[in-house]
């Protein structure tokens, strides 16, 4: 089976991802808000620029029309033809905003503004000093082609996109800077574990080998109990050692995938952990059907060991550990402390521990998740605080 | 007797068929060289809208002085300032409404 491998420290933890996404979301909102604000300011300034360009020509038209109104005023009644011009349309209003005459296409007049856009037209409102024909307000209207708007939008979208991309790249760089201290701590911890793991191997092997070699038949009951305790402690340390070794050294090794009889493996591992279960007086329920999987034995053993040891470690005294197996599904349940709903998404993060009463580094489930992801398996967590946890592995 | 009554009725109805403007304004202005139409345009040029024109005219009719007249100095020098009106406010308003309606620019432009 071809599988991809990646170093644990290169991928982001869920908590890191959450921090990163929160930062980026906030940063992106601020960037979008700033760019929108600048775009609005740019649009308004361009609009003012266009109006100021038009103001000169419209003022000239208003001057011409005023002269014509003056002539008409003095010859009124002999002449009643309102002066027209092909370059613009106009209207006259009296001091009370009452229309005297209008040739405008759009009669929506804003008397308080000097020049403005209105539905495809530009209006200039000129106030006359002499009320020719009773006119206080002379309105000059020309069409607004809107070509300048297309140009402005093109600039806003083009430069806005470039600015957005620039700020996002800058934001990613910033986010990496913020996360660096966190990643440095993880790398330091990894290096420390790697170094200390080497030193654990020899004494641990010696302890376990000697316990196996001891003849318990000649021992008094008191010493047998003591040896049992040593055995439990050594096996606990052994599991931890294997996890740490896997994490720092073995995960780099090439996979040797083979068909594994899961039921047989579970019997084997259940027997290995039986002494731990007995120490907490746990009842073990095994409902195992025939099942097989193609996987690296070493890695699948890490999954089984971690799930079983967690079910034992976080169980109550006199509790129950249940293991159900059928083709494609393995479920390991305990009757322990359980997890609250908010904690569940983070249980596979490395160095995350929700219960400090028990020992450990918080690496077990992170290893499980890594192997599950590597082989495209799935793992589900069902947990209720105070009632227990059920881990379901599917392949 | 019947003839006298009929003649009286015809005369009285003739007077009342005229509007207030014709009754109170036209006679006095007949002698002046500037028409009431031109005077209206002077008022319009100075006061602008309907309310302003009427208010300005009413004030001038009641308190006529050279300083607030819209007519030229030459005109005033030749024809002087009019006498203070003897009409009541109601009669003035009636005459001004009629005057406005007759000479207003609105609706006349084409």
**Radius of gyration from the alpha-carbon trace of chain A, in angstroms:** 41 Å
Structural class of chain B: mainly alpha
Oligomer: heterodimer
Structural class of chain A: alpha+beta
Please summarize the sheet with the most strands of chain B.
none
Unreliable segments of 5+ consecutive residues of chain A: 1-10
Task: Round the Cα radius of gyration of chain B to an integer and report it.
Answer: 17 Å
Cα shape of chain B: globular
Number of DSSP E strands of chain A: 12
Relative strand content of chain B: under 5%
Helix content of chain A: 40-55%
Q: With helices defined by DSSP (H or I, 4 residues minimum), what is the helix count of chain B?
A: 6
What can be said about the biggest beta sheet of chain A? 5 strands, antiparallel
Helix content of chain B: 55-70%
Order of helices and strands of chain B: HHHHHH
Q: What top-tier CATH class of the domain at 254-394 in chain A fits best?
A: Alpha Beta
| Secondary structure: number of strands of chain B | 0
User: What CATH architecture label of the domain at 254-394 in chain A applies?
Assistant: 2-Layer Sandwich
**CATH H level, superfamily name of the domain at 254-394 in chain A:** Histidine kinase-like ATPase, C-terminal domain
If interface size is counted as residues with C-beta under 8 Å from the partner's C-beta, which chains form the largest one?
A-B, 21 and 18 residues
Short summary:
The complex is a heterodimer of chains A (395) and B (110). Chain A has helices at residues 14-74, 147-213, 221-248, 262-279, 297-313, 364-374; strands spanning 89-93, 99-102, 115-118, 121-127, 137-143, 257-261, 283-288, 292-296, 320-326, 329-334, 378-384, 388-394.
């Amino acid at each position: 089976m071809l599988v991809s491998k990646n170093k644990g420290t290169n991928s982001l933890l869920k908590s890191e991802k959450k921090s990163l996404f929160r930062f980026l979301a906030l940063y992106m909102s601020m960037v979008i808000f700033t760019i929108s604000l600048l775009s609005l300011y740019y649009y308004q300034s361009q609009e003012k620029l266009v109006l100021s360009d038009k103001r000169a020509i419209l003022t000239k038209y208003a001057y011409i029309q005023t002269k014509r109104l003056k002539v008409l005023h003095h010859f009124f009644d002999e002449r009643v033809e309102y002066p027209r011009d092909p370059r613009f349309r106009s209207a006259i209003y009296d001091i009370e905003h009452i229309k005297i005459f209008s040739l405008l296409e759009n009669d929506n007049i804003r008397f308080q503004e000097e020049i403005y856009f209105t539905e495809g037209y530009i209006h200039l409102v000129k106030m006359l000093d002499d009320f020719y024909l009773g006119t206080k307000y002379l309105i000059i209207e020309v069409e607004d082609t809107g070509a300048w708007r297309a140009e402005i939008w093109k600039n806003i979208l083009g430069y806005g996109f470039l600015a957005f991309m620039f700020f996002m790249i800058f934001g990613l760089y910033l986010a990496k800077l913020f996360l660096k201290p966190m990643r440095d701590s993880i790398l330091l911890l990894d290096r420390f574990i790697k170094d200390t793991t080497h030193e654990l191997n020899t004494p641990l092997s010696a302890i376990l080998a000697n316990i196996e070699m001891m003849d318990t038949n000649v021992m008094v009951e008191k010493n047998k109990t003591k040896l049992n305790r040593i055995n439990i402690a050594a096996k606990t340390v052994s599991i931890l050692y294997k996890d740490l070794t896997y994490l720092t050294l073995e995960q780099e090794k090439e996979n040797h995938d083979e068909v594994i009889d899961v039921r047989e493996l579970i019997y084997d591992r259940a027997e290995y952990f039986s002494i731990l279960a007995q120490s907490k007086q746990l009842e073990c329920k095994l409902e195992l059907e025939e099942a097989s999987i193609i996987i690296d034995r070493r890695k699948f053993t890490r999954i089984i060991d971690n799930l079983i040891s967690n079910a034992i470690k976080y169980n109550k005294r006199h509790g129950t550990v249940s293991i159900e197996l059928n083709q494609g599904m393995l479920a390991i349940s305990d009757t322990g402390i359980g997890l609250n709903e908010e904690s569940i998404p983070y249980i596979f993060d490395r160095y995350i521990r929700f219960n400090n009463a028990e020992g450990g580094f918080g690496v077990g489930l992170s290893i499980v998740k890594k192997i599950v992801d590597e082989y495209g398996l799935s793992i589900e967590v069902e947990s209720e605080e105070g009632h227990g946890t059920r881990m379901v592995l599917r392949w | 007797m019947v003839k006298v009554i009929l003649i009286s009725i015809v005369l009285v109805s003739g007077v009342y068929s005229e509007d207030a403007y014709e009754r109170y304004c036209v006679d006095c202005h007949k002698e002046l060289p500037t028409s009431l139409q031109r005077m209206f345009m002077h008022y319009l040029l100075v006061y602008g809208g309907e309310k302003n024109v009427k208010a300005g005219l009413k004030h001038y009719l009641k308190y006529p002085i050279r300083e607030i007249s819209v007519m030229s100095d030459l005109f005033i020098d030749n024809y002087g300032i009019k006498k203070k009106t003897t009409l009541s406010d109601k009669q003035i308003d009636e005459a001004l409404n009629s005057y406005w309606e007759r000479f207003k620019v609105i609706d006349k432009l084409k």
